[in-house]
Amino acid sequence: AWPEFVTVKEVGPRDGLQNESSHIPTNVKIEWINLLSEAGFISIEISSFVHPKWIPQLKDAKEVATAIRRNDQITYAALVPNKKGLEAAIETNVDEVAVFISASESHNQNNINKSIEQTYPVLREVVEEAKYHQKRVRGYLSTAFGCPYEGDVPIQQVIDVAARLLDMGIDEISFGDTIGVANPKQVDDMLTKIKQELDMERVAMHFHNTHGMALANVLVSLEHGVTTFDSSLGGLGGCPYAKGASGNLATDDLVHMLHQMGIETGIQEDRMREAASYIQEALGKPLPSHQMQVINRM
Ligand code: HMG
Ligand code: MG
After folding, report:
1. pLDDT tens digits, residue range 39-61?
2. Which of 12, 126, 132, 217 has the most neighbouring CB atoms within 10 Å?
3. Is the torsion defined by CA of 88, 45, 171, 238 positive or negative?
4. Catalytic, out of 163, 200, 239, 242
5. How far is the CA of 237 from the centre of ligand 2 (A)?
């Protein structure tokens, strides 16, 4: 049986924008997040407190987090890599912080300049301090379905890192198909194993749509009882010239599918499309989601 309600976590302002090469003005980000809030999203990842040299697009995280109109019913989240990032996030009073680690060694090294083993104590400290400040904590497990440097990542390796993350006391773990290579059978195999070893209540899925399989992967995940998915409005993100990089699963395509299946999300589709059109216009290029292609043809 399908679930009655699915939690859609909008990550466009973070995962979508972090890959955009053109500079997006801070006030545009703020206005976009305000439109998302008004559209009924219950969880929005608004930015990232990482080193500005690594992700220059999100160097205005603090301004964005403090200037958006906050709604008590909405969880505003931000990505943090370490204690320094956490402290900045706490100053801006976000509701949730997201730590991240990769299932593959070389991606972890390239992404955060540490081995997986060296990353655990950094994250443990972040989780403890975030909990002390009564923040919700989610953990991303990147390259869970494939690594741009190593290719296949063994399922047991994914489960082992996931278990270490969950042991730290995070509220939720999001399995990331960072480069969008997962296929439905692989997701089926992975979730069959995850079910045996981890608490499914705390599992979310984070698909990218490089090969157009993200919605198929969602369907398989729904069948396994997953009810939380990350997505980016319009399918924003990725660079057609960077090997392996592609946008997230498009929120508007996900929400459309769920609503057509009779599954609720709390999101108003017309308001969601207005928010998508707003960021599309600000970026000055068509967004790749199917929903936006329909609108753009009209
Ligand atoms: P590092 O250079 O190893 O850091 O970078 P360090 O601890 O050696 O410190 C070096 C300098 O950085 C120091 O400054 C620190 O203060 C500063 P200095 O003394 O030289 O002036 N620093 C910071 N500044 C601002 N904010 C901070 C911070 N931390 C240290 N938080 C670091 C390590 C983790 C900081 C760096 O590698 C980094 O910022 N990486 C970010 C990478 C990133 O954001 N990647 C994209 C997100 S992950 C993703 O997209 C996948 C996901 O979507 C899931 C999926 O798709 O699978 C989540
Ligand atoms: Mg991602």
Report:
1. 999 999 999 999 999 999 999 99
2. 12
3. negative
4. 239
5. 9
